[in-house]
Amino acid sequence: MSSIQSALQAIDNFIWGPPLLMLLVGTGIYLTFRLGLLQIVRLPQALRLVFGRDQGHGKEGDVSSFGALCTALSATIGTGNIVGVATAIKLGGPGALFWMWMAALFGMATKYAECLLAVKYRVTDANGQMAGGPMYYLERGLGSKPLAKLFALFGIGVAFFGIGTFPQVNAISDAMSLSFSVPREATAVVLTLLVAMVTLGGIHSISSVSSKVVPFMALFYIVSCLGVLIANAAALPQAAALVVTSAFSGQAATGGFVGAGIMLAIQSGVARGVFSNESGLGSAPIAAAAAKTDSCVEQGLVSMTGTFFDTIIICTMTGLTLVVTGVWSGDLSGAAMTSAAFAQGLNPHVGQYLVSIGLLFFAFTTILGWNYYGERCAEYLFGVKAIKPYRLIFLVLVACGAFLHLDMIWLLADIVNGLMAIPNLIGLIGLRHVVLAETRAFFASASQEQETQTQTA
Prior knowledge:
Blueprint: H1 2-15, H2 18-34, H3 38-41, H4 43-51, H5 65-76, H6 83-92, H7 95-120, E1 123-124, E2 130-131, H8 134-141, H9 145-161, H10 166-180, H11 184-199, H12 202-231, H13 236-249, H14 258-277, H15 284-288, H16 296-325, H17 334-345, H18 348-382, H19 387-401, H20 407-430, H21 432-456
Antiparallel strand pairs: 1-2
Helix pairs in contact: 1-20, 2-7, 2-14, 2-20, 4-16, 5-12, 5-16, 5-18, 6-14, 6-17, 7-13, 7-14, 7-16, 8-9, 9-18, 9-20, 10-11, 10-18, 10-19, 11-18, 11-19, 12-16, 12-17, 12-18, 13-14, 16-17, 17-18, 18-19
């Protein structure tokens, strides 16, 4: 068994090694410059679309653009925002946070492109609901059904055995047991019932819950982090400077020579950044396809803010909290490191509870989001008749997750998660001209319309 696990670990390290990370970030860099720094120039417009009054009333789709964004955020804002950031800084030092920012900056362009394509190539299924994502733009846009089926297969694998179930359920069970002394059996029963109540209602139910829970949980966590940062305000400028300087000086927690330190900071920061915001993995487009919109460009703009909220805001809050309190250079790692930062920055007892509550919300919403992603993948492969069996299997796996500690299954899920990105990135590169053409046509039309209104006025 140990030899099998070692082999899987080697495969995982290979898949998530420099080639895939370079392809992910490289695609983002290419799109960034071809789109004219759209994620920076058009960010104010994107934020207005997110919080604007027009949320798709009377337009084709299942849920509002905000609801689709929250569904995507429910899956991306997860334990990685607490545990993943701590892991990255533990491995690569404070400089890893800087490279997380870089991954997110270019990842916003990738997220824009993949969600634009999801809306452009979406279809209406036999139940009258919108179906879209990499499966559909790989088949209908790129003309490759084998790649589409491969992506869908990997997507189901991640939903069943990876991000969607076991790690999240274990995180919830551990938090309830350690912080609130709740037995795992009770957690398993209550969690399964809650997930069933939400997910059996489909995208409308998931979107409705996500639209309420995601903003609340994000605000709750940000305010908690701000409490630590305000309490340590005097050390904040030095901490911010350390993040930037150590990104290029190679100051890592593990030490070593400068070149090795810089590479470790880059690799850990980029890898954890991609894990956190999922730009380029192809998951968020599945939710984006359900949005009520008549413009694939506008939905692309809305969806790219997910990476902004996830990494630029929430991961930054976690990272600065770890650096400003100095816990990053200690012996702790993962959630324990983040708990120590809150305990030191606020109150030993309150800090532990804040992190546990954050983990509860983040993990629960990730289960909801990935339930929907896997469902859409199952429907693509087997038709609408597969939806009910898929949901039942998903609930059984959630119920079992509290009692499983299967490192090999998590390794397999990690591998499948990385494999999801490969067909999706092939699709993005192959359809890049479609993205550019749609973007230019939209903004040219918008500019012409604005000129006409100005002349009329």
